[in-house]
Design brief:
The complex is a heterodimer. Chain A is an alpha+beta fold. Chain A contains 17 helices and 19 strands. In chain A, the strands form 4 sheets. In chain A, strands 7, 8, 9, 11, 15, 16, 18 and 19 form an 8-stranded mixed β-sheet that branches. In chain A, strands 1-2-3-4-5-13-12 form a 7-stranded mixed β-sheet, with helices on both faces. A two-stranded antiparallel ribbon of chain A has the order 6-10. Chain B contains 2 helices and 8 strands. At the A-B interface, strand 4, helix 9, helix 11 and helix 14 of A face helix 2 and strand 6 of B.
């Protein structure tokens, strides 16, 4: 286990594990945290996992961990690693199984006072229109050519099919379509798993949450994003479902041999990788892009069904019930980007595993209306607690390859959470606070109890103080829908 | 008889330790553990059977591929398995028959089985492995 004495404090919010800590490190590792969050990170093997990622061939600057870091598999969750192209690697285990797991924020024009009388009906409509839980399938069944269109076009496919508006695409990371996707590099098994999963939420920590805007920190940015105090908004958290899981599985298994072929030695077999420009690296990248597009299409169809639910319940009762898209971000992805490395613009492959892209003002890849503002960043808290809307900053571009945190970060295992918390009791407690719950599994609810997570506000304070994200608004839950 | 698996602490995902007198038993226990962690009812009478054949470059890859194959089958066929027979096994090949029932009779989702820290080891007590799954 790594202890505090192994870390050097760089400034108030940044700690470093020097390259000399372990002989196989190719770069130092940096953790964004204040004292309390550092203590949390020292409780499990997350920093050891961070050090492991610092051994990846081609890594530049640092292996970076966000304040919501916690133990994962391979990469820690909350990890960012950039490798220099063309020689640096891409790692499927570094992206993880839920490729392009991400968050979307939709904002209504309605207020808490207007929507609250219909909240129970709204939660029920959302639960029925957005299938959740284990083994669920959606109304859309995709076959052959149309599934390939989803994989290459992502949210653009959804727009052609009437599930999206142009503004949705404009306000989605990569405009909802990752370039380079090629279904030829996706197995039939992945397609079999994914063909009926578009428009489904799944299980685990995925959710739909109806929130209210409780605080504005940056009134100009909030106004630009269409956010105001007392407003009702909706978050979606989910990813590429069984399709993405299978793509990752296929490549992690295949790369067990690939690393031997390239003579790459690694401290953990989940970190298997291939040079980005190699045949194997490119094939994974094209398959990963298909999964990312699948996830964008999935969240888009869910957004469509959320709008349908709002219309069913609120039309004629709440004047401004319609929802506009604030933004959609990915938090498990490998992307080719240009970043400053030692004063030189350098093409890198940025792995974000449980970390969010947070591009600052003037960055490429932002729509015209956001270019001078910076990219909106969505940080969901644990169930029943606050969430935050941030924007990317020049600091995130300088320090963290345009990245910031992605959530609260777990501190308690699911097994322990289930022993400590009873799902039914938790549901009653949340309901007593006026939060409406629609959940398929009470033990699943217990696993996601707020006690199992760090304090999201503390996490957000660190990224704000470190200058890798700027606070815009705080959200608090009104209704939670999960499998 | 010792329990066929033991769940161990993992902050974000889930992990279990398995053992077996021989490789066949280890692989059967791994499958039992994974389905038990999904909340499958072990005693339900099986009504469907699937033949499974898996390859891997070594024992660890074989174990991961075996478990991921079962996750794939349960998802595409919308079935849940509770009885496992490993018919043939080597370090790189496995042939098995699995039994279960139609329907997604599971409380929990396991997304995938990982290679994180995985080693299939033998000592005087038999075969052992610790498996981390993404949930």
């Amino acid at each position: 286990m790594i202890s505090k004495s192994d870390l050097k404090q760089i400034n108030e919010n940044v700690w470093e594990i020097p390259r000399s800590f372990r002989a196989d490190m190719r770069a130092p590792a940096r953790l964004y945290a204040e004292e309390g969050l550092l203590e949390d990170a020292l409780q499990d093997r997350s920093l050891e996992q961070l050090v492991n990622t610092a051994t990846l061939p081609g890594i530049v600057k640092y292996a970076i961990a966000m304040p919501d870091i916690h133990q994962g598999y391979g990469f820690p969750i909350g990890g960012v690693v950039a490798t220099k192209l063309p020689d640096g690697i891409i790692s499927p285990g570094g992206v993880g199984y839920d490729i392009n797991c991400g968050v979307r924020l939709l904002a209504s024009g309605g207020t808490v006072e207007e929507v609250s009388p219909f909240l129970e009906d709204l939660a029920t409509a959302l639960y029925h229109n957005c299938p959740s839980g284990v083994g669920v399938h959606g109304e859309i069944k995709l076959k052959g050519a149309e599934l390939d269109e989803v994989l290459t076009e992502g949210a653009r496919w959804a727009k052609r099919r009437g599930y999206a508006r142009q503004e949705d695409l404009d306000h989605t990371e990569e405009f909802g379509t990752i370039p380079g996707a090629d279904p030829a590099y996706v197995s039939d098994r992945a397609k079999q798993r994914g063909h009926d999963q578009i428009g489904t939420l799944g299980a685990g920590n995925h959710f739909i949450e109806v929130d209210k805007v409780t605080q504005i920190y940056d009134s100009n940015a909030a106004e630009r994003l269409g956010l105001f105090p007392g407003q009702v908004v909706v978050q979606i958290h989910c990813g590429s479902r069984g399709f993405g899981h299978q793509v990752c599985e296929d490549y992690v298994a295949r790369f067990q041999k690939t690393v031997r072929d390239y003579g790459i030695e690694l401290p953990d077999r989940e970190l298997v990788c291939a040079p980005f420009e190699s045949k194997e690296g490119q094939e994974y990248f094209r398959g990963m892009a298909c999964s990312a597009n699948f996830a964008f299409a999935n969240r888009q169809v869910l957004a469509h069904n959320i709008r349908r639910s709002f219309e069913q319940v609120l039309a004629g009762k709440v004047q401004k019930w319609d929802l506009h898209q604030v933004y959609d971000i990915a938090h498990n992805m490998a992307k080719v980007e240009e970043h400053d490395v030692n004063g030189k613009e350098t093409r890198v492959c940025v792995h974000r595993k449980g970390a969010t892209r947070a591009f600052g003002p003037g960055s490429p890849g932002l729509s015209d209306d956001l270019r001078d503002l910076g990219q909106p960043v969505l940080i969901p808290g644990s169930m029943g607690t606050a969430s935050y809307v941030l924007i990317g900053t020049p600091g995130s571009m300088e320090q963290t390859f345009g990245s910031t945190c992605h959530g609260a970060g777990r501190v308690m295992s699911r097994a322990k959470a289930k022993k400590t918390v009873r799902g039914e009791r938790l549901k009653q407690e949340l309901q007593a606070r006026g939060i409406v719950i629609r959940a398929g599994s009470m033990s699943g609810l217990a696993e996601e109890a707020p006690q199992a997570y760090k304090d999201v506000s503390q996490v957000v304070e660190v990224v704000a103080r470190a200058g890798i994200g700027k606070k815009v608004a705080r959200l608090e839950p009104m209704a939670v829908i999960k499998g | 008889m010792p329990p066929s698996f033991q769940e161990i602490e993992h902050t974000a995902d889930r992990a279990f330790r398995i053992q077996g007198a021989d490789l066949k038993q280890l692989f059967v226990n791994a499958a039992r553990a994974m389905f038990a962690m999904q909340g499958t009812r072990a005693r339900a009478k099986p009504t469907v059977t699937r033949e499974v054949s898996v390859e891997g470059v070594d024992r660890e890859t074989l174990l991961v591929n075996w478990l991921n194959e079962l996750l794939y089958l349960q998802e595409v066929h919308k079935e849940t398995y509770n009885r496992f027979e490993v018919l043939e096994i080597s370090d790189t090949h496995l042939r098995a028959r699995v039994h279960g029932r139609p329907g997604s009779d599971r409380e929990k989702l396991i997304k995938a089985v990982t290679f994180h820290g995985l080693e299939v080891k033998k000592d005087r007590g038999g075969w052992h492995a610790t498996v981390v799954v993404d949930v």
